Amino acid sequence: MKKLTRGQKIVLAAAALPMVAVGIGGGIGTYVNIVSVFHRRGTAAGVVAAGEGAVFVLALVFVGLTMLGQAAPLAVRAGLWLLPATTSTVGVVVAPTGREAVVFAITPMAMTVAAEGLGLLARRIVVHRTGVDVEAQRRNAAILTRIAYHRARAEHHPWKLVRRYSELAAWRLMARLGHHDATLGSALTDVQNTRIIDGANTALATMFRSGPELPAATPRPHVASPAATARPVRHTVTAKAATPPPADTTTPPADAPDPTVPCYEPGTPQYVVRSLWLRLGHRPTESAVVEALGDANLPNSRAQAGKIRRQVEAENPKLPGPRAA
User: Fold this and answer.
1) Lowest-pLDDT range, 19-33, 124-138, 248-262?
2) Which SS3 state, helix, strand or coil, does residue 245 take?
3) Among 70, 196, 205, 229, which residue is least crowded by beta carbons within 10 Å?
4) Could you give the residue ranges of the DSSP H alpha helices within the chain?
5) In the chain, domain spans
6) 8 A C-beta contact, residue 272 and residue 293
7) CB 84 within 8 A of CB 48
8) Are 308 and 289 in contact (CB under 8 A)?
């Protein structure tokens, strides 16, 4: 798990303090606006509590869930926008003039912007430290669920029109899968970098190949041999057939290492992943690899775990496959 440096903490604190100040300023502005119309502080305090106060509570819930690595419910995200909109509507209704109505309507939005900014900042801190984007995983899981539903309906629904609609809907959902997912982007970047390195290696090997190519061998023309002259038959003594040497039947020792299996140093990520693979008897999941790397005090982001698992699988083709369902 990564840790924030001192400079990062200072910059993040400097960015969070203005957000809090903007939210407080929005609440004070709404309070002053309502007092100027009703001339009753209790009524103004109630309006602020129902609008900015409720938004402040939802903002605390949103930031707390994000710092715990959990996705915020849809009701919390919706409340961060609906409650200030309600307060803005109240401000428009009670404003004596059209110009003041615009001011009364836009003031409560300060709390919403502050709450969303703090939530986004907390989410990015969690992603930086753990390498896991919970919100992106939640969106991807929801999209995959809808894709599975539409694919099943596209294959088995009795109505042709519904099958056609579900097929198109599944393709549209596939286009949205993985948007704003930093973990997926990192994994795809690793794959692309590997392909680029392989291509560069092939190109350089072709360019700097040692020695010119030899021309193809020309077949020799066939020359007819003269007729052989018959020779008198000689009576020779048949030589005794030579006995072939005995074949080497020595078997290698049982503990001899397999030359096709790479040798990893103990304590390396590859050694930890292959040991986990052999202990489980099947291909470990990405979560199991992340946990094993964390127990060994090694970098254990999901991108790093997937990369190491693919490397071990490519270098050890005799390892067992995934666990049977």
Assistant:
1) 248-262
2) coil
3) 229
4) 6-38, 41-48, 54-67, 74-94, 98-106, 109-130, 134-156, 160-176, 182-207, 269-280, 286-295, 302-315
5) 6-132, 136-176, 269-315
6) yes
7) no
8) yes
Assigned token pair, 37: 């119309």
Tokens found for residue 270: 């590859």
- Answer yes or no: are the C-beta atoms of 46 and 89 closer than 8 Å: no
Mean pLDDT across the stretch 269-298? 86
As given in the structure block, the two tokens for residue 114 are 């502050």
Read off φ and ψ for residue 199, nearest 5 degrees. -65, -40
Does position 181 have pLDDT exceeding 80, yes or no? no
* Total number of residues shown for the chain: 325
Place of tokens 């074949």: 247
For residue 154, the model assigns a pLDDT of 93
pTM of the model: 0.48
Q: Count of CB atoms within 10 A of residue 102's CB?
A: 13
With CA atoms as reference, report the closest residue to 169 among 185, 152, 190.
Answer: 152
